[in-house]
Amino acid sequence: MEWLSANDYGMAREILQRGVALIYLVAFISTLNQFRALAGEHGLLPVPRLLGGPGARGPSLFSRIGYSDSKLASVCAAGIAISTVLVAGIPQMGPPWLPLAGFLALWALYLSIVNVGQVFYGFGWEMLLLEAGFTVGLLGSRQVPPPQSVLLLIAWLVFRLEFGAGMIKWRGDPAWRNLTAMYYHHQTQPLPGPFSRRAHLAPAWWHRCEAAANHVAQLAIPFLLFAPQPFASMAAGVVIGTQLWLVATGNFAWLNWLTIVLAFCRISDPVLRQLIPGLPHQEGQPAETPIWWIVVVLSGTLLLAVLSIPALRNLFSSGQLMNTAFNRWQLGNAYGAFGSVTRQRIEVIIEGTEDQTPETATWLEYGFKGKPGDVSKRPRQFAPYHLRLDWMMWFLPLGSINQRWFRALLFRLLEADARTLALLGHDPFAGRRPRFIRVLTYRYSFATTAQRRGTGAYWVRDERQLVFGPIALQ
Question: What DSSP line would sit under 227-284, residue for residue?
Fold first, then answer.
């Protein structure tokens, strides 16, 4: 069945499978480092309490075997091991079912974590990673040609991701339609990066060009992913270029990196060799695809196509949903980001003191790894690593500050809990218990060139408000 084979996409398959496996590796390492403090046995939102109530939001190993921090560590260790061998390309040298088995294992393990991770795992790139892993496994190994139907499924995933984000922006906020959204975005995005301040201080005409280019890249270019070559490769190149700009100007976990990897599904080997001279040719042609593998591929293609029908309807719905799964397996999802842009940056600041009397106390500020706090601290690059607590802190001023996980965080800080403190960038008490804690908010703005030159600060903050506390452990 030559119509199913895409012999000119051998390099694309290598990039897709190894790249997605690499993101899984980052995700499992991130989970191993953070999950126990966030949702472990003694975490801010303990999984055992979740499983003792309504339970997980979907299939999870922990619903069957129970949860413990040691079981979580074992799941992460298995995920890291499988991801590593897939990044090395070892299963890809075997029979076509072997990479599929590896990616299905990653999907099942990570789905088990996401479905009990609660708000800390409620991000759109979690379901994107799950769907990407399930899909690229169907590309098989080097013993068979890359299946054309699976490459088109991945292109359809990129289309939903990009076009969905474009439509949610166009519908969601007039700032996107009048091209002023980028006046605010670089400054108010969740976790700015080292280049975000420079990007924010660019002239207004440049920001309007950014917004217009975003509409072209997300509302028009995705249709060309299904065009003949070389137009499909050109469209993929535009997607990759815009995602690299987002990588350079922000910290969106693995969203941008995974989108870049997936976009290679439409860049053919001849185009890659023109772009990268000296790229090695594959030795020989894969053997003829066995019938049993064709049945597996077409069955998987049909399953994913049917599961994504609700997402197709959602794209053209006036009540479009963003980052939504329509089934328990988180396949065929709806995606989108920044349907609205915040105009001001409000930061929640936590302070503590060891003094006896809070009214006359000297208050010291807790520092986070990625979230702005100290105005003299330059934003750092963390993506594709996901700082989950820092992201949740960004959401606090957008809703109610009286979140259960946030109250738990304050008491963990009063207890000087070691795992919780490990999530932070700076503990002003060096592991000692503070006597009191309080919560403030400030409005943050990037320092202008003159302010930066005069004070050395990267941020300017004002409009200080006390919103919670002081509280003590008792």
Answer: SPTTHHHHHHHHHHHHHHHHHHH---TTHHHHHHHHHGGG--HHHHHHHSTTPPPPSS
